[in-house]
Amino acid sequence: MKKKILLKAPLLTRSGYGEQSRFALRALKSREDLFDIYIQPLQWGKTSWMAMVDTERAWIDRTIEKTIAYIQQGGQFDISLQVTIPNEWEKMAPINVGFTAGIETTQVAHQWIQKANEVDRIIVVSNHSKQVFEKTVYSARHDQNPQHEFELRTTTPIDAVNYPTKTYEKSPDLGIELDYDFNFLAVAQFGPRKNLPNTVNWFVEEFRDEEVGLVIKTNLAKNCVMDREKVRNDLTSFLKQFGERTCKVYLLHGDMEDDELHSLYVHPQIEALVSLAHGEGFGLPIFEACYSGLPVVCTGWSGQLDFLVDENGKDNFYNVAYDINHVPDNVVWEGVLIKESMWAYPREVSAREQMRLCYEDIKNNNKDSTALRARTYAEAVHGRFSEENQNALFVKSFEEYVTNSEDEEWQDILEQVVEYD
After folding, report:
1. Among the residues of 220-320, which ranges form H helices?
2. Which of 237, 355, 363, 411 is the most buried (most CB within 10 A)?
3. Residue 150 pLDDT class (50, 70, 90 cuts)
4. Architecture of the CATH domain 3-161+386-417
5. What DSSP assignment string belongs to 310-357?
6. pTM exceeds 0.90
7. CATH of domain 183-380
């Protein structure tokens, strides 16, 4: 019998958690013989909602209406799947699964561990997130017995399931014309963790007098006109300090569908992606660039290593050196990003060296370079992180809740993913 599963998630938002929610939905829909799906949509911060209407959106809308009617009739669910930060997980069904991007730092808040131990299973998007959950330990005391000290750690089973790759028949022409033939691309929200000011600074200092560009796809929170004007004014003011320069910096702002964003990765004048973020739960734009065959210059720490490093431990990116240090006070978020946690600080010298090396490898067509291997490696990533494989891995996390593990049909699923597990 199908299990009634409630997906509580920011499914319709343009955000990292929105994309994560849609992956979860598609994975569940891949086994509609096992799941009767219901949806409770959430907002995610100040991010915009998707306006696009297609067959998937129409199905989601119908399912939301079905869910409202079912709840009004007093209906109950067998499983809840809650896609959000752990602070917001709650008991909604006999079985509750929390699906989170996890953490971009070295330590999770004690509130996360308490909530983690209240659900039946946790799914995270990278091994970095899984390891941070498992390694974070606090010394705690019971309220009823303050003399008794114990270790507070995550005891709930945790699975790491990466995103799947996507394929596009044809990329739309966005009409983007750049002044130079060689341009780096940065895709990141304009916030402290993404480290965009240093990315711009170090790019300009390295390529000041050269015909090289940097295209920045960014926003502060939404993709509205006010957001665009704020970002543009801030970026313009920041660039004035550099005075005369030959290199170019471009701002790209606004809503983009998945295929439109993909068109940036395959644009004939965009040669590499650069990300100098302090940490990533997974690093979706880096992943998209990687499986699109675009060379990547990136901080060598956190969630992105799941796909930037191959199964033999070999780097397939321009690895920027870093130091691990405490997060700054201005990013501390009570119950989420704690003051005691740390993240990576990319080193300027290394960042500039790796951007330069990437540039020279491409310009000089250097054989056996990371840049020239990028397209071949993209094919390997598509195989390793295919939609079929990742959907099966995601559904595998529900194995003990939906079927008898000895069933022949279930064994067929496990055989599909054993090679990559």
Report:
1. 225-240, 258-265, 284-291, 305-308
2. 355
3. confident
4. 3-Layer(aba) Sandwich (3.40)
5. -TTS-B-SEEE-EEEEEPPGGG-BTTTB-TT-EEEEE-HHHHHHHHHH
6. yes
7. 3.40.50.2000
